[in-house]
Amino acid sequence: DIKVFSSICPHLGCRYNWDTERKLFVCPCHNSVYTIEGKVVSGPAPRGLDTLPKEIKDGILYVKYEKFEVGIPEKIVID
Q1: Are 76 and 69 contacting, i.e. CB atoms less than 8 angstroms apart?
Q2: Are 29 and 12 in contact (CB under 8 A)?
Q3: Are 24 and 36 in contact (CB under 8 A)?
Q4: Is the pLDDT assigned to residue 79 strictly greater than 90?
């Protein structure tokens, strides 16, 4: 199964990066660290990486982009 994550860190809304050597997602703003599955390893992040709705149709991956409230433990979509 494919997981698609928002590129926004749920801590303060910065964009995180993939650290190839460590095989972890790392946010440069406050050093929140996440596994490849999106779980918090360390840092101030209040929750794991937010997943986005996706669908595979005729071999093509479609992703619905959503924005989420940052800085809180709950995953809440915002308009």
Answers
A1: yes
A2: yes
A3: yes
A4: no
Residues whose CB falls within 8 Å of the CB of residue 75, separated by 6 or more in sequence, listed in order: 10, 47, 50, 68
The first and second tokens of residue 51, run together, are: 């997943």
> Which residues fall within 8 angstroms of residue 52, CB to CB, at 6 or more apart?
4, 5, 6, 63, 64, 65, 66
pTM, 2 dp: 0.91
Question: pLDDT of 8-67, one tens digit each?
Answer: 999 999 999 999 999 999 999 999 999 999 999 999 999 999 999 999 999 999 999 999
User: Are residues 51 and 3 in contact, defined by beta-carbon separation less than 8 angstroms?
Assistant: yes
Amino acid identity, position 40: V
